[in-house]
Amino acid sequence: MSAISQETKKIIQDQYSIRQLTENDMKQMHRTFSESFSDYAVPYKLTLDEFAHKMRHKIHLSYRYTSGAFSNEKLVAFVFHSLNQYENELTAYNGGTGVLQGHRGNKLPAALYDHILPTLSSGGVRFCVLEVLEKNHQAIKVYEQIGFIKTKRFGCFQLKHPKKLKSDGITVESVKEPNLQLYDDFGICVTSFGDTMEQLKFNINYETTLEVIVDGKQAGYLIFQPLLGRVTRFGVRVEHRRKGIGRALFARASKLARKTLSVINVNRDYSGEIDFLESIGFVNTLDQFEMKLEIK
């Protein structure tokens, strides 16, 4: 069922053209993305090259499931989607929704989903998933009107007290060609869509992997983006926890990173991971909801 009335649909059709985006739209996508997020609570300032990299590798944009609204041939609203397995279901991930000022309040996000949902359904996609800032009440209302429901609560953290990070004589090694399957044995590591192993493979060549080896076997690992300071995944085998391995991994990452370390979308249901981050100097900077839409 559509989230917009027939009358509103007619108004949108008269004022806008909606279509799937292509690689040829990259410059317009970057410009509209930058403008639409200029007043966002979390600043997004990316060069065209940085933005293109994010779309192609980190989000791994699927143009078939990505749509935009145009006014006088200018892109004024968009929904970016990636496609992958998530929680054992084929899922489209909303890697960004934006509407330019002057076009907000016209139900363009709902119209964009109206346009793309039949394609998602025909492609066998079961769910759409996204993250939204907990305090962004207007966006939450928009997504709920489309049919999304809140499913998880994530905490986002930034390193504020780096002096708490010490290696304690533990050797941390960089790995050029990590075997990601090995890390499946490290116990619970429940991530958001963007940091699953399935999604990580698209960007792994641009991330740095650190390991601690004990008795010839991986005891702990950490994967991060040095340019951004963004930690993607980390874990320590159960039998090696509380021995300083996690702290040593973060200490090494902090020295290699060009920006302050951050860890986003830590599931609030797993307090042990949050307690560890806070114990080594991270502080909670904001919280997000994961929201999910079931495709009928």
In percent, how helical is the residue content? 25-40%
- Spans of 5+ residues with little confidence (pLDDT < 50)? none
According to DSSP, the number of beta strands is 12
**CATH homologous superfamily heading of the largest domain:** Gcn5-related N-acetyltransferase (GNAT)
Q: How are the strands of the largest sheet arranged?
A: 1-2-3-4-5-12-6-11-10-9-8-7
Shape: elongated
Contiguous helical run count = 8
Description:
With 296 residues, the protein is of the alpha+beta class. The chain has two domains: 142 residues, Gcn5-related N-acetyltransferase (GNAT) (Aminopeptidase, 3-Layer(aba) Sandwich), CATH 3.40.630.30; 132 residues, Aminopeptidase (3-Layer(aba) Sandwich). Helix content is 28%, strand content 32%. It is built from eight helices and twelve strands. Strands 1-2-3-4-5-12-6-11-10-9-8-7 form a twelve-stranded mixed β-sheet, sandwiched between helices. Strand 3 and strand 4 form a beta hairpin. It is elongated, with a radius of gyration of 20 Å. The termini are close together. The model has no long low-confidence stretch (mean pLDDT 94).
Q: Summed up, what is this model?
A:
It is built from eight helices and twelve strands. It is an alpha+beta fold.
Write out key terms for the chains shown.
single chain; 296 residues; alpha+beta; Aminopeptidase; 12-stranded mixed sheet; 8 helices; 12 strands
